[in-house]
Amino acid sequence: MKKEVFICLFILSNIIISCQNQDNKQKCTSDEPVTSASTRQNIIFDTDMGSDCDDAGALALLHKYADKGEVNILGVIFSSGKNRYGAGMCDAINTWYGRGDIPLGQYSGNDVGDVNNYYSMQIATDTVRFPHNITDSAEDMLMVYKRILTNQPDSSVTIITVGHPHALYYLINDAEGIDLVRKKVQKCISMAGTGTQPGECWNFTKCGVAPYISDILERLPTAHYFSGAGTDVLTGHKLLPSTPENNPVREAYRLFGNSISNGRPSWDQIATLFAVKPELYSIDSIGSLVKNEDNKTYWDKNRNNHRHKKVIPLVPAIELEKMIEELMAEAPAGKTD
Ligand SMILES: [Ca+2]
Q1: Residues 125-183 pLDDT 10s
Q2: CB-proximal residues (5 Å) to ion ligand 1
Q3: Which pairing describes strands 185-191 and 264-265: parallel, antiparallel, or unpaired?
Q4: 179 Cα–ligand 1 center, Å
Q5: What Å distances lie between residue 287 and 64, 145, 238, CA to CA?
Q6: What is the homologous superfamily of the domain 41-329 according to CATH?
Q7: I need a labelling partner for 67 at 20 to 30 A (CA). Which of 73, 94, 180, 276 fits?
């Protein structure tokens, strides 16, 4: 081969390779979510799944943001020690969205939790209609938290609690756990009553959790955001009913007081949405969440805690309803209705 011909062929082959790479890049940018892995929110979702259906809606939201490349769901923790089927319910939702391998943790104690069953047992035990492989048991939540946190970059993890938050107590009262929280956790977001008058809050007052709360409020060494909105944001009854009958989120709403017809307040979705879309919220940094001697909690404007922040949606309820309902009803990636 003459030298000139070889050089021409070399240049031509480089042009072809370059074009192929360009094609691949274009393919990637058109097929993959634009958000890079490093900007995704790394989230541990801690829930009292089963006590209400908004937990199911909130986990659905997270999965859809994971589909869109905005979130990594690092783990799901079921915080109740009483109705054990919540773990299976979480697994059914994770599997529905194609993420049945997400680490699951469960409270191994029996002093905190809701004994009632509304939908967890029905869905967790029906592994034919709702394919998944965990029914009523998962590894101890503290072990799961610590293992997940150990493997994450520093200051990269957001913990969302939409149930009883006593796992945070166990974390900060464990020598390894508190080190991990200091190093790895960027912030915690908790669904809790944030009114300025003392009130009983399901997540922070009821079901045996009250003795854990003061320590969490006073000693958690990270920013702690509290979201109490959602009563006037009804979801689950507009688009969710048209999703497949073997969608475990749809079934949770159907079984929980026929919320699939009536709708249900979106407390847990609104707390969860803050992790992904903080620009939709105002943040009040003046004050702190306090528990009084009656185990009631309230936002005390006169007692400042620089770690405590109260978040309030800036978006009207009707727009939040639309946004949340659409996400809850959107088919999992790769699944068509
Ligand atoms: Ca909840």
Answers
A1: 999 999 999 999 999 999 999 999 999 999 999 999 999 999 999 999 999 999 999 99
A2: 48, 55, 162-163, 268
A3: unpaired
A4: 27
A5: 33, 29, 37
A6: Ribonucleoside hydrolase-like (3.90.245.10)
A7: 180
